[in-house]
Design a protein that fits this description.
2% of the residues lie in helices and 59% in strands. It has 256 residues and is mostly beta strands. The protein folds into two domains: 4-148, Immunoglobulin-like (Sandwich), CATH 2.60.40; 156-255, Immunoglobulins (Immunoglobulin-like), CATH 2.60.40.10. The strands form five sheets. Strands 1, 3, 5, 6, 8, 10 and 11 form a seven-stranded mixed beta sheet that branches. Strands 2-4-9-7 form a four-stranded antiparallel beta sheet, with no helix packed on it.
Length: 256
């Protein structure tokens, strides 16, 4: 679902400044490739940073923690997390228009860190140019997955299912819990919600593709637009929830 976090902090006039008529390219356009990397303690990888804009930029390079909120939206974790393990070089880039440079990413994992995957961010933030009428700053994040050797645990559980009403709109809210130490990627059809009344099949809902980070909850909201009302049996089915288990099924009674 996610490959990188990109935030552009500009004023209300930024859209007018960055896409002027006749301009071959915008004054500020920063990108990074790849947008997701993985490292182990003592190893390193590289990220190429490119300035596709028509003006030179200075880019500060910093590390931060990374998380997904309950709805799967990426955010910078204030606590730092595995971001404190990253070693970045260089910490500042001066890129001419159309220029690119490489940032080396390595990690030193402290003793006692749990095995599995720990996510962090490399933040690339441009400095505002002096003399511009409206300062424009662009920040791009590259997700870094720090892998700690040890036993891999995969365990996906169903936490709950409920119905929310907003006027006439009905939304089915499913909560899953990744109790393992590695990310779980849920393609379409790996999870489904089946509504029945007796033996009669009423509907099947398929959540969209989703990634759940280790030791995290995920909330999936799906609109129900069918014609059924009243009490129904809702079976949540998850394929391959853990090694050795083909299917995890849990049934709820909800009122549509």
């Amino acid at each position: 679902m996610i490959a990188a976090v990109a935030v552009t902090a500009v004023s209300a006039l930024a859209s007018a400044l960055t896409g002027g008529a006749g301009a071959d390219r915008p004054p500020l356009a920063l990108s990074a490739s790849p947008t997701r990397v993985a490292v182990e303690s003592g190893a390193w990888t590289a990220v190429r940073v490119t300035n596709a804009g028509r003006a030179s930029v200075v880019v500060d390079v910093a590390a931060a923690g990374f998380a997904l909120d309950l709805r799967g939206r990426p955010r910078i974790a204030s606590a730092g997390g595995a971001g404190r393990w990253l070693i970045l070089s260089p910490r500042r880039l001066a890129l001419p228009a159309g220029g690119s440079a490489r940032v080396t990413v390595s990690a030193v994992v402290p003793r006692g860190a749990g095995p599995g995957e720990h996510d962090a961010l490399v933040l690339l933030r441009t400095r505002p140019r002096a003399g511009t009428p409206v300062p424009i700053v662009m920040q791009v994040g590259v997700v870094v997955q720090v892998r700690v050797r040890g036993p891999v645990v995969r365990r996906l559980d169903i936490r709950g299912l409920r119905l929310e009403r907003h006027g006439r709109q009905r939304t089915v809210v499913l909560t899953l819990w990744n109790r393992g130490n590695v990310s779980e990627v849920l393609p379409v059809r790996r999870v489904r919600i089946v509504f029945r009344r007796g033996v009669r099949l009423l509907a099947t809902l398929l959540p969209p593709r989703r990634r759940i980070l280790p030791h995290s909850l995920a909330v999936m909201a799906l609109r129900y637009a069918g014609g059924a009302h009243g009490w129904v049996q809702a079976a949540v089915v998850v394929q391959r929830p853990r090694p050795g288990a083909a299917v995890l099924r849990r049934t709820f009674r909800i009122r549509l």
